[in-house]
Amino acid sequence: MHSVLKNSVWVTVLALFAACSSSENRLPIFGERDTVTKVVDGKTVTDTVYYKIPPFQFVNQDSLPVSDKTYDGKIYVTDFFFVTCPTICPKMKTQMKRVYDKFKGNPDVMFLSHTIDPRHDTPAVLKEFASSLGVTGTQWQFATGPKEEVFKTGKSYMVVAQEDAGAPGGLLHSGHFVLVDKEKHVRGMYDGTTEEGADKLMADIDRLLAEYKKQ
Amino acid sequence: MKRVLIGLAVLFLFFQTACQSQEELKKEKYFVEGYQLYTEHCANCHQTDGKGLEALYPPINGSDYLKNKEKVICLIRFGQNEPITVNGKRFSRPMPANPQLTDIDVAAITTYIYNKWGDETVISDVKEVSRVLDVCRDQQKP
Question: What residue in A sits closest to B97 (Cα-Cα)?
């Protein structure tokens, strides 16, 4: 009897730990947050409103529209690059390809790479780049559009993308991968130029997928 | 007399090993510098293991293009705008030039590549590399 009691105490303790760690395991939500107070059923309720990626509209490697709607209900990874970039982009594409290969065919996961050099990187150029990289279909889309729009979108993901005469190729952009969840909240930022960064991203995508599975 | 002979032999051996290690030292220096320069200037695209990336960037490791050594030396410095065929695959992306690399830098990178992936065991001496680069430079002029 005593040992049964002891066991059940242990089970309870373990269950509590599991409960704790499962909530601690949730990825953070990035960006500014607001609170909204409203009255529901006569009671005052305060809700936290998290930062969301605003709508965007570009053209993809197949010259078809790609927008925030394309990514509705998807976990996606996004970055900024340009085809002729000699410095960090090849590294980023090497790492992104690893992540893509891991989640290839997963209907919940998508990818979005924005070019910051739309004058050179037309949809045809992006298409050729994508197929050379071994990317087909629509799971990984390569977006181009007016420069100002791309730069603005970069800001919305909290990464740098701008013109800079001092940078090789005349353009400056961050080497980050940004992880966005199905509600368009930013859930992670990763160094896209290193294997470790990409490893962390792959682990976090798994964690995020697990969060949705639990719901 | 015998002692003199022995002395000479010892001296001879001493100089020979000293010479050998001088050569070895030089090769080591070329190789290590080549590795560092490769990591900094080449590995972004061609990867640390030299295997390239898909159909975007051609491999160096296991590449049949290495037999064109003079072309390889030149494209390290001057880049490449024409499509090239490596192991039967066509690569059409231009390779940027690296004008910041000195002749000795190119020699070190060449030594690294050819010792690591090209079955060579000797250095690509800067004198020879400079000669090749001079020829290419003249050819590049319109």
Answer: A86
Class of domain B24-140: mainly alpha
B94, B18 Cβ separation under 8 angstroms: no
Mean pLDDT of successive 10-residue stretches along chain B, which has 142 residues: 76 69 89 96 94 95 96 95 94 91 97 95 95 91 66
Domain count, chain A: 1
Tell me, what's the pLDDT at A141? 98
Is the CB of A132 less than 8 angstroms away from the CB of B44?
no
Vertex A117, ends A200 and A121: CA angle to 5°? 95
Is residue A89 annotated as involved in ligand binding? Answer: yes
- ipTM of this complex: 0.72
Indicate which CATH number applies to the domain containing A202.
3.40.30.10
| Cβ neighbours of A131 in B, within 8 Å | 55
Give the burial class of B108: count Cβ atoms within 10 A of its Cβ; 0-12 exposed, 13-18 middle, 19 or more buried: buried
A115: containing domain: 56-214
Eight-state DSSP code of residue B50: S
Q: Are A188 and A201 in contact (CB under 8 A)?
A: yes
Domain ranges of chain B: 24-140
- Higher pLDDT among residues A192 and A173, named by residue: A192
Residue B45 with chain A: CB contacts under 8 Å: 90
